[in-house]
Amino acid sequence: ELRGLPYTPRTVVLGSRESGLCVHELAMGVAAGGAEEGEGESGFEQMATRQSCRQLRRNRSCQYYAGLEATGAAEAVASHFRKCAPWDIEEAASYGLSKCVCPYYATHALAQHADLIFCPYNYIIDPSVRRSAETCML
After folding, report:
1. Which residue(s) pair with 51 in the sheet?
2. 52 and 27 Cβ atoms separated by less than 8 Å
3. Which of 13, 70, 81, 103 has its CA 20 to 30 A from that of 90?
4. Do 134 and 108 contact (CB within 8 A), yes or no?
């Protein structure tokens, strides 16, 4: 709907790593190993993915997170963000893969500059999640 408007607000979609914003094969492989075929996002999947992500970042083993920290990467993401139509989660993940930047952390950084933020309701209701998103959403 937003793509058809004459005004294009800067939008960002926040989501979990498990929703498709983590593109690192090891982190996602750990989570996938904990769920049976056809099951939804379980607490184990979320915890496993978060822990894997944290460990990969600590060990500096995540090329996507390192790509976001690279000189000029944040500016390139922000520039692309300003020029393009609104992103959805799949487009953010695709961009992250193609440019080797972490879509999860990139979307959270872009939220600081967005006119409109789409997110799960718990990002607004749960104070701890709201604080971790580090943005004013209201």
Report:
1. none
2. yes
3. 70
4. yes
pLDDT at 42: 53
Distances (CA, A) of 59 to 20, 53, 83, 114: 22, 10, 34, 31
Residue type, 31: A
- What average pLDDT score do residues 47-73 get? 87
- The structure tokens listed for 91 are 């487009």
pLDDT, average across residues 123-127: 82
Task: Take residue 96 and report the two structure tokens written for it.
Answer: 């992250």
Is residue 12 within a helix (H) or strand (E), and if so which, with residue range? strand 11-13
pLDDT tens per residue, range 70-109:
878 878 888 877 777 777 889 889 988 999 999 999 888 8
Sign of CA dihedral 19, 28, 50, 59: negative
And the tokens for 60?
């500096």
pTM of the complete model: 0.77
Mapping DSSP onto H, E and C, the string for 41-80 reads CCHHHHHHHHHHHHHHHHCCCCHHHHHHHCCCHHHHHHHH
